[in-house]
Design brief:
CATH superfamily of the largest domain in chain B: Aldehyde oxidase/xanthine dehydrogenase, molybdopterin binding domain
Order of helices and strands of chain A: EHEHEEEHHHHHHEEHEEEEEEEHHH
Radius of gyration of chain A: 19 Å
Number of strands of chain A: 14
Largest sheet of chain A: 5 strands, antiparallel
Helix content of chain A: 25-40%
Strand order of the largest sheet of chain A: 4-5-10-6-7
Shape of chain B: globular
Oligomer: heterodimer
Largest sheet of chain B: 7 strands, mixed
Largest interface: A-B, 26 and 30 residues
Shape of chain A: globular
Number of domains of chain B: 3
């Protein structure tokens, strides 16, 4: 478990990093926290000719309240998200979910940009980006572009980043008033990748749902929104019966895989259980917020 | 003991903090990989990617030409150099597979070493691995042990003529007849899945070659430096004083470091041939694929009881999936045979018939694992006891009260031939119940059930044989003696005490507990004692640490040697103090004339013997050293009752253990802190076996659990607080009254948790026959039960 040889360069700016990426014709990889990349190098699953280390680019590490949205630098560590007052105030579902991301030592190193770019199909952050309609800002030698989270995740470990591109920033719109949220996960052990996890938001006006979002991870090759189930909630007051129907629709919407940890049937069952729990939480919080 | 023995501070029984922890917890321990050997070559192995294949050709020319590569070995290079070694035994019909450092002709499991590459660094060696070309011809194979046991199954070892490496049977009375006549019968097909030890330190070894003496020192992360020394001396035809095996600090073993491995043979061979130090530090993939694995049995068992729940008869047919080789020195008998020999448990079982077949399959060999056989036998008999109790409508506690061997029945001969000496079977059961508040817990369960919650309570009682002496062997006629231990204690010219043993601690705290025994019996200060162990040069012959033996055997040897040395010290002191030895007492590093303030220190005694000319008559100046052996002949019984209370989420099927109590009898306790720690660690591993850990192969023989992402061990947060009650009944059969206790936690926990899960799910009609009972398995069990109803 030793990596094949590679060159290593520390980039001190985004410009330097993307210049190096651009010159390497797809043979370079960015290293930030290294929590997924280094094991993959050691297993020789990846053989980059060059590692571009972006840990020295201080400008990529921030959490900022920008009025209508929260801006998060790609180099922001999981632990910063977990403990940020800005996140706790405006995006508490992220703060809650971060407690389920691996273990403290890993959260001290791992970054949001790394997690989103790596796109493990059972990771929490890609699901949250999808849930919260995040926009991802991407830099390259040719300039900058941004892409919606829904267009970013293309499959297992596959995202809409070209060879010369670097994810630099994540922008997440603040949630409307009277929005509740929920998060529910089942993993073999605390900190493991999810067998299934669900994150929800629910915005309520006059006692009924005006916006509902359900995002799922661990049940497909990429995070998914349960859009049909979401629509069932609109204009409704949430009842146990409605939650049951929403959960059933979400459950039927997924075709998860089987592996050594869980069968497809068990994962699908979990989707139903966790959607019910996470949406029930969101409904309770929304009502408290609306009151 | 002298008349004033009661004046001495009691070291045996004191909660002394572990002396080794200061270095281990501050990063100052020295493990094999910490040993920097200048100019060492590093080994990486090309390992088989096939479970069963013929090796048609190996082309390593490109690898040999790769940067930094010094040598490449294949089996062809070793044919006249390294003779195969076999784990021999007198068992009838047993086939001892030949063990070689590199696969010859065929590979028999995924992960088997095929080619060794030696390079200036492990990085360069791994780069060169990719350049080796092996032409394999895949062979048919039976990955499933029942298929492999069939007469028409493809053979793993053609010379054996069968995949069944051995068969054994234990029989008392007419169990089938008794069962047929019995009013109540319960039975099941039980399955304990394969697991791996997963010690935090992976296996590693480093061979240092002294060309001047043609001598080798092998530093190895091993539990058995003595066994390795003797085996390697045989393989290389070297005298023991030119082959030393040192186990430095070792980060856990659990049985996985208690066998001879191909990597150790290869490393020694290469160091000698190349005249350079050679180092191999395994990685986690190698550990999870090529360290000895464990359990993996299928047991069809039936228990009959009378209408009062008293056992009438028991039968069991077991298949042990022992993997590809019969591991050295224990043989493939070790694990599966103990399943059937221990199956009657701590109970009165009038008639018994237990049969076992050990079946070779294309998987890593199984070997010793904490608890050996007994986690599985306890799982089966304890499940059957609960099933019988439910069948006749009595509490699981009550059926155990009615069947545990009673205090006045010891020594009790078990149906399989083992003998239980007097120990606290009933005391452990009752004290565990008292500690957990059994009746109140049952009342809480009734409330929880009424509220639709799945709350379960599980009891497991077991007995095991520990500190086994020379009369009992894991496999009759195996090539080593596990039943004797040596203590060699010396006071040097500065008054310091060095006590050397053949044991090899790898987390047990033997440097502390053995020092406590020596301190008490010699009358020395704990701080003046150094324990030397984990080194084949420490004593003339030794094996190591395994099988809950070290406290009983090394503790007994320490008592004998320390008592003998104390007499020598008193003889010298009697000259210095001009008093008769019987009027002297040794304590706290000082010899005192009883009833006076006249005394000499051990240092003064030592100076008189070694350094002061003419102070003593010549005949009183013998070296202050005594060496004694100890052999407990049969060994002694250890026992415990575990009780688990847990709750299962009725939607996600996640199991949460709420309470866990162990009441254990390990005889006279040397250090309660260390006993607690051993119980905690053992229970954690048992929880792993019950709920988490499973080595999984697919139908093509590929191992799917090659990393800690897929091989799931419980983490600290998954282990509940564990309450330990000590039932301290002196062993009647061992010197010092000690009983072994390193494995017990792992023996009781799988059964207790299985019973608690089954108890929680009893209203659904779900029973537990397979471990680990993962959430995905629970989902299937519950779905099947719901489909039935």
């Amino acid at each position: 478990m030793k990596p094949p040889p590679f060159d290593y360069v520390v980039a001190d700016s985004v410009e330097a990093a993307v210049a190096l990426l651009g010159q390497s014709a797809g043979e370079a990889k960015i290293i930030a926290g290294g929590q997924s990349l280094v094991p993959m190098l050691n297993f020789r699953l990846l053989r980059p000719a060059l590692l571009v280390d972006i840990n020295a680019i201080a400008a990529l590490s921030f959490v900022e309240d920008a009025g209508h949205e929260i801006r998060i630098g790609a180099l922001t560590r999981h632990r910063q998200l977990e403990t940020s007052p800005v996140i706790a105030t405006h995006l508490p579902v992220i703060a809650e979910a971060m407690g389920h991301v691996a273990h403290l030592a890993i959260r001290n190193r791992g970054t949001i940009g790394g997690s989103l770019s790596h796109a493990d199909p059972a990771a929490e952050l890609p699901m949250l980006a999808l849930l919260l309609d995040a926009r991802l800002e991407i830099a390259s030698g040719g300039g900058r572009r941004d892409v919606a989270a829904g267009d970013f995740f293309r499959g297992a470990l596959s995202v809409a980043l070209d060879d010369g591109e670097l994810l630099t920033e994540i922008r997440i719109p603040k949630l409307p008033a009277a929005t509740g949220w929920g998060f529910a996960e089942v993993a073999r052990r605390h900190g493991d990748f999810a067998l299934a996890a669900i994150a929800t938001t629910l915005t309520v006006a006059d006692g009924t749902a005006v916006d509902a979002r359900i995002a799922m991870t661990g049940v497909a090759d990429r995070p998914l929104r349960a859009t049909v189930a979401e629509r069932l909630l609109l204009g409704q007051a949430v009842t146990a019966d409605l939650l049951e129907r929403v959960a059933a629709v979400a459950r039927e919407s997924v075709t998860p895989g089987s592996d050594v940890h869980a069968s497809a049937d068990y994962r699908r069952h979990l989707v139903g259980v966790l959607v019910r729990r996470a949406m029930d939480e969101a409904w309770r919080r929304a009502q408290r917020g609306a009151a | 003991m002298t008349d004033a023995a009661h004046l001495r501070p009691k070291m045996i029984g004191a909660s002394v903090p572990r002396t080794e922890d200061a270095r281990l917890l501050t990063g100052r321990g020295a493990f094999v990989d910490d040993r920097k050997l200048p100019d060492a070559l590093h080994v990486a192995f090309v390992r088989s990617i096939h479970p069963h294949a013929r090796i048609r050709a190996i082309d390593a020319t490109r690898a040999l030409a790769a940067p930094g590569v010094a040598a490449v070995y294949t089996a062809a290079d070793l044919e006249d150099v390294v003779p195969p070694i076999r784990a021999t035994s007198r068992m009838s019909g047993y086939y001892a597979t030949p063990i070689l450092p590199l696969a010859l002709g065929k590979v028999r499991y995924v992960g088997e070493p095929v080619v060794a590459i030696l390079a200036e660094s492990r990085y360069l060696a791994e780069d060169a691995l990719e350049l080796v070309e092996i032409d394999y011809e895949a062979l048919p194979m039976a990955i499933d042990p029942e298929t492999a046991a069939r007469p028409d199954a493809p053979l793993l070892h053609e010379a054996a003529g069968t995949n069944i490496l051995l068969t054994r049977e234990f029989k008392r009375g007419d169990a089938e007849g008794d069962i047929a006549m019995a009013p109540v019968r319960v039975k099941g097909r039980f399955r304990m899945r394969r697991r791996t030890p997963a010690a935090i330190e992976v296996r590693a070894c480093a061979a240092d070659y002294d060309a001047g003496r043609d001598a080798l020192t092998l530093y190895a992360a091993t539990q058995i430096p003595g066994i390795l020394r003797d085996a390697l001396a045989q393989i290389f035809d070297l005298p023991g004083h030119r082959l030393r095996v040192v186990a430095p600090d070792v980060g856990g073993g659990f049985g996985g470091k208690a066998s001879l491995y191909p990597e150790e043979i290869l490393t020694c061979l290469a160091a000698r041939q190349l005249g350079r130090a050679v180092k191999w530090t395994g990685d986690r993939v190698e550990d999870l694929t090529a360290t000895s694995q464990a359990f993996d049995e299928i047991i069809d068992a039936e228990l009959a009881v009378d209408s009062q729940g008293r056992v009438l008869g028991l039968t069991a047919d077991a298949i042990g999936d022992v993997g590809a080789y019969s591991i050295y020195p224990w043989t493939a008998a070790l694990e599966p045979v103990q399943v059937v020999s221990f199956l009657p448990g701590p109970y009165r079982v009038p008639s018994y018939r237990g049969r076992v077949r050990a079946v070779a399959t294309p998987k890593a060999p199984t070997g010793p694992y904490r608890g050996v056989g007994r986690p599985v036998s306890t799982f089966v008999i304890e499940r059957l006891m609960d099933m019988a109790a439910r069948e006749i409508g009595i509490d699981p506690l009550e059926i155990r009260r009615r069947n545990l061997v009673a205090d006045d029945e010891f020594p009790y001969k078990v149906a399989s031939g083992l003998v239980w000496d007097k120990s606290g079977f009933h005391a452990c059961l009752e004290q565990a119940c008292a500690a957990i508040g059994y009746d109140a817990l049952r009342a809480r369960q009734a409330e929880a059930r009424a509220a639709g919650r799945w709350f379960g309570i599980g009891i497991a009682s077991y007995a095991e044989l520990t500190g086994i002496g020379s009369r009992i062997s894991a496999a009759p006629g195996m090539p080593i003696n596990t039943g004797t231990e040596t203590a060699s204690i010396r006071i040097d010219s500065t008054g310091a005490v060095t006590a050397a043993f053949g044991v090899a601690a790898h987390g047990q705290g033997l440097e502390t507990t053995l020092a406590q025994v020596v301190a008490e019996h010699l009358g020395a200060r704990l701080a003046d004692i150094r324990i030397v162990q984990g080194d084949s040069d420490a004593v003339g012959g030794g094996t190591g640490t395994y099988a809950s033996r070290s406290t009983v055997l090394a503790g007994g040897a320490a008592i004998r040697a320390a008592d003998g040395l104390r007499e020598k010290v008193l003889q010298v002191a009697s000259h210095l103090l001009e008093a008769a030895p019987r009027d002297l007492v040794a304590a706290d590093g000082r010899v005192t004339v009883v009833g006076t303030d006249r005394s000499v220190t051990f240092r003064e005694v030592a100076r008189a013997v070694y350094a002061e000319m003419g102070r003593l008559p010549p005949e009183a100046r013998e070296e202050l050293a005594v060496t004694r052996n100890y052999d407990p002949i049969l060994g002694t019984t250890s026992c415990a009752t575990h009780i688990a209370a847990l709750e299962i989420d009725p939607q996600t099927y996640i199991v949460r253990i709420e309470r866990y109590v162990v009441a254990e009898d390990c005889g006279r306790i040397i250090n309660p802190l260390i006993v607690d720690g051993q119980v905690h660690g053992g229970v954690a591993q048992g929880i792993g076996a019950a709920l988490y850990e499973e080595v999984i192969h697919d139908e093509n023989g590929q191992i799917l659990t090659g990393s800690f992402v897929d091989y799931v061990v419980p983490a600290a947060g998954d282990i509940p607080p564990i309450e330990v009650v000590h039932v301290e009944s002196m062993s009647p059969t061992t010197l010092g009254g000690f009983r072994g206790m390193g494995e017990g936690g792992t023996i009781g926990a799988p059964a207790a948790i299985a019973n608690a899960v089954a108890d929680a799910l009893a209203p659904l009609g779900v029973d537990v026959f397979e471990l680990p009972v993962t959430p995905a398995r629970l989902f299937r069990l519950i779905a099947n039960a719901q489909a039935r109803s």
